[in-house]
Known about the structure:
This protein is of the alpha+beta class. It has seven helices and 13 strands.
Amino acid sequence: MGRSLGSDLRxxxxxxxxxxxxxxxxxxxxxxxxxxxxxxxxxTVRSPQEVVTVLRYASAxxxxxxxxxxxxxxxxxxxxxxxxxxxxxxxxxxxxEIDSGSMLVVxxxxxxxxxxxxxxxxAGMFYPPDPASIDSCALGGNVAEGxxxxxxxxxGTTKDYVTGLVVVFPxxxxxxxxxxxVKNATGYNLIGLFVGSEGTLGVITEITARLxxxxxxxxxxxxxxxxxxxxx
Length: 232
């Protein structure tokens, strides 16, 4: 089945997107835990439309799909326990917009969280969630796993900052949930369902998150290190 799956996917996607050699699949068989399971094929997408293509194929052929970002998670969320396709979205790395007026950022799921923080800090803002793997983990994985970090004690976790998502459901249909909004108290909290869902409901292809003003001064607990910035 592995060779047939790889061949089918190659007919649907640009060259270089599909990997099915054992040595390649082994690289995507685990995350930061001890869990390990070999996918039948690995697909590295470069656009939301490629995500749609893969999920439509998988739905039609009853093939399991597990989304994967940086693979640094500690809950097994990106381990392909049922085989099938490891769908790697780490290549979707665009920071589409930093909106200083609304204090929101729009980006793709493969953006490394530490890089996002640096980008918004340069604009005088602050993205509080800070997982331990901040310099390697991706924002899409943070959303899928409901990541937190030391700053969560004061500022909250990822769920407190996501205001919008674009998601691709298992059948390949696309939906925009929320967006560049300050408050939304109507209808079902679909964004809340997706945050922490570990990729079981669909694949995230765009994230809108709220930001805070950059603090004038910060200090890390247990050290004398402090940083002063220009007053806001």
